[in-house]
Every structure is written in C-alpha cells, then in structure tokens.
C-alpha cells in the first residue's frame, strides 16, 4: 500500500510526459520483471526489490485505467469499470487458490509458484503493444481539454471525500485479507475453515465487482449503494463482535458487501470528472492519498490485538471506520463534478 501511494502520486505527471497507454505498457513490463526477479532472487534484498518493482507497475496501471476507460468508453463507463473491477477481484482470488498447486507442478518450490505469475503477466504485455503499434496511441495530457493540478484538488470537497472513502474502503479490505482468518480461528474455527471463509469472501467479490459499476452509472447519485455496502459491513463486524462462532459464514458473506466499495470508488473517479484529463489527476490524487490512509489499517489493527489480547477493540475500531466511510461516501456519491467545484472556488 505504501508503494501504491508513492508511485501513484507521480503517475499523473508521468502520463502527461509519455502518454497514458505507454504508462500502462511500462507498468505491465515492470510487473513482469519484478515478479520474475523476486522469484530468482538469492537474497532478501533482491526479493524486496522485485516486489517493489512489481507493485510500482500495478500502482501506475491502477491510476491510469479509470482515465483510459473514461476516454475510450465514455458511454460504457459502468460496463468497462465492472470488467476492470471484476478482473481485479479475480486477481485476488485466483492466485490464492492455485499458487500452491503451481509450486507442486513446477518442481521449483516457492520460486516456481511465484515466478509462474510473471508468465501470466507477460501475456498482458501483448495487447498493449499491439494497441500502440496500430497507431492507437494515448494522447499526452497537455494536448487534451480540461485537466487540473493536484494542488487545485485540495479545494474540491468531492475530491477530498472521495479520497477518504477510497482510503477507508481500502483499509477495511486489507484488514479483512490480513486478519479475518485470525479473527475466525480465535473464535474456534480451524485454520482450514478460516482460510476457506476468506476464499468465499474473495469469490463473492467477483460478481459484485462486475455488476455494481454498471448499475451505479445509471443514476446521478450513488448514495444508496454507499449505504448498502456499509450496512452489510456493519452487520458483519457486529456479528464477529457479538457472536463470532454462531454463524461465521453469514458474517463473512455480509462482510463481502464491503468488496463493492472498491468498484464503486473507481467508478466514482470517472463519474465525478467531466474530462479524461481531470479523471487522470483525480485518480492519482484519490488513490495515492487513500493508500496512505489504508497502509495504517493492518498494522494498527494488529497492534491493537497485541495490546488488548482480544479482537473486541479492533472490531469496534473497524466499526467506527465504517461510520466514517458512510459519511464521506455519501458526500462523494452526490451528483456533481470536480471541475464545477474548482470553478466555483476560483
């Protein structure tokens, strides 16, 4: 998350210099080299360096994709955001399920299991190279209408609330990925069943990620979807807090509603900007700032568990973050554009 925040912050400037599609191609190549490099690393430092390079590639691609969708599919933003979000959700669920079998199949231990993903990532290089070679180049931002500076976005209520919404949803998502199995095993579930619950949550995210952006773009306001997402998460956290062992599958399924916050957030990035150039700046502002907030989540929740030796206080804190997520989400989901806010501020 720290890599996402740091590299995401410089992506808009990079895309203005070399073009958005070129940035995605460079990002995907970085993912391939990083994944392959860490699998071949002989020292911990090399493993970390490969991981950072791969994460840098993911970060820059994540920032640029909402703008590219806004530019190339202006009348199908919901559909394309849904496909993008569904692919991201599948990218979480699939490796968790098949990396261990890949370890066994390759015969090279963990290096073979992790290195295999470099091969899959390399496949994604091909369509971007074809796109650029056929003349469909991304336009450099200074030749595009619209756009704004990062400093100007600090004067936009929508940009700030969307950043907070993105950060809080990411915080909860990474806490679930990191700590949900531990919470469930402390309630009496076996490690195997706890891992299965996490897989169930990841699988539920796939149809939610596909459907929600398409539905959300049909309305001017997306506030009802913010309420539904947060309500499901609050019910799930309350279940884990008050009766974790009674119906753990139900609590996990309710918590899975929180997976809808990511596709909704990236869809809002496209909807709250009139121009693709503004969407690119807004995407970098929201995601880099949001991941700074999100990076605190897993560490803080783990520290609270260490200090209190229970999951009660961490779950109460997570419930509080969802209340905040609801408040800022309702502001971000109002039907208005960043450009209008900035013009009014000027």
Count of beta strands: 0
Radius of gyration: 20 Å
Q: Give the SSE string.
A: HHHHHHHHHHHHHHH
Strand content: under 5%
- Supply the number of helical segments: 15
Poorly predicted runs: 138-145
Overall pLDDT level = 88
Instruction: Please summarize the sheet with the most strands.
Output: none
- Cα shape: globular
Give me the secondary-structure category.
mainly alpha
- Head-to-tail CA distance between termini: 34 Å
Percent in helix: over 70%
Characterise the protein shown here:
- The protein is built from 15 helices and no strands.
- By secondary structure, it is mainly alpha-helical.
- Helix 2 runs antiparallel to helix 6, helix 3 packs across helix 12 (261-271) and helix 4 (77-106) packs antiparallel against helix 9.
- The radius of gyration is 20 Å and the shape is globular.
What's this entry about, in short?
This protein has 346 residues and is mostly helical. It has 15 helices and no strands. The two termini are 34 Å apart.
Topology:
Elements (H helix, E strand, L loop, with lengths): L1 H17 L1 H21 L3 H29 L4 H30 L2 H15 L1 H9 L16 H4 L3 H30 L4 H26 L6 H20 L5 H8 L5 H11 L4 H33 L3 H21 L5 H8 L1
Helix pairs in contact: 1-2, 1-3, 1-13, 2-3, 2-5, 2-6, 3-4, 3-12, 3-13, 4-5, 4-9, 4-12, 8-9, 8-12, 8-13, 8-14, 9-11, 9-12, 10-11, 10-14, 12-13, 13-14
